[in-house]
Amino acid sequence: MNKFLFALGVSALSPLVLAKPTIVTSIKPVSMVVAAIAGDHAEIQQIVSSTASPHDFAMRPSDLRKISNADTVVWVGESLERFLEKPLKNAGKEQSSIEWLALEGMSLHNFAEEAHDDEGEGHEEHEEHEGHEGHEGHEGHEGHEEHEGHEEHEGHEEHEGHEEHEGHNHDGVDPHVWLSPDNARVLAKAVAARLVSLDVENATYYEGNLATFEKGLTAKDAEIRQALSKVSTVPYIVFHDGYSYFEQHYGLSHSGEITVSPERKPGAKKVAEIRREIEEHKVQCVFSEPQFSPAIVEILLEGSSVKTAPLDPLGGNVAMGKNAYFSFLDNLSGQFLSCLG
């Protein structure tokens, strides 16, 4: 009888013993790096849909619940996901979260000064992008409640004393850090350390995944560098100025961008300027992005023989799994090669 009661007790406790750590991530590139380390030993819950953009995202009640129940929240930082700052603070998760931009060893780039000078152009034309009204219909976003006036949306309120928020002051920093394999390595190490602290029994598993990721990243990086070296001098224009980490890492250099802030459409002056750049620099390709309407690219290239192709900085079509980040790098380099080669 005692043995039966003991077995029953162990059985009742087993869900607690076997419970996986819950890691909430902000965007898909973050999820990719986390998945490489977590494997099937942790549950990953992503906030921003793989088909949405973090630049104009609005939080929902279901997202707030994810944050509240998370063991750890992994995000890029307030300069990309400002909508997360207040919810993290309110949930008491600010100190336990992993902010990619703030990790030791990160290589950060500042946006070009001249790009910010141009940002004022087109402010009067701050229109909503097609397909971004409330993000309805985006797959992979469970519990998508209707946005009624956005009264409940955290992150759309003013942040009192925001400039005094220590550790999150990255004004002028390009937040697209996942486009650098070196920065991905930094996050992978931080995630491994956190998972080991949360799930000591599986420490060897996480450490092994980290070693595998680092070895695979070195090989993939060398492979892509060799492939892109063939198009390093081909001039192109990107949709928005968000690829500097990838471009500098692999020796590419765009001739210009359509907009600095992707949520803003460029004004007539900027459009005319880009058309001049296309002619003067003999631009071979103008890249669009699947998260935003391609209409402006079509207007720019009307009557032109310049090629265009989508460049997806978020890896929307990449299948999640331990090798997702490698697939993302493959896809992105392939998109460059398809239009520049």
TrEMBL record:
Chain intervals with Basic and acidic residues compositional bias: 123-174
Main subcellular location: periplasm
This protein's record includes keyword Signal: yes
InterPro entries hit by this protein: Bact_metal-bind_prot9, ZnuA, ZnuA-like
Highest taxon of the lineage: Bacteria
Region span, Disordered: 115-177
Cleaved signal peptide residues: 1-19
Subcellular location: Periplasm
Claim: Manganese is one of the keywords in the record: no
Swiss-Prot/TrEMBL keywords: Disulfide bond, Ion transport, Metal-binding, Periplasm, Signal, Transport, Zinc, Zinc transport
Family of the protein in this entry: Belongs to the bacterial solute-binding protein 9 family.
Function as written in the Swiss-Prot or TrEMBL entry: Part of the ATP-binding cassette (ABC) transport system ZnuABC involved in zinc import. Binds zinc with high affinity and specificity and delivers it to the membrane permease for translocation into the cytoplasm.
Descriptive protein name: High-affinity zinc uptake system protein ZnuA
Species of origin: Marinomonas primoryensis
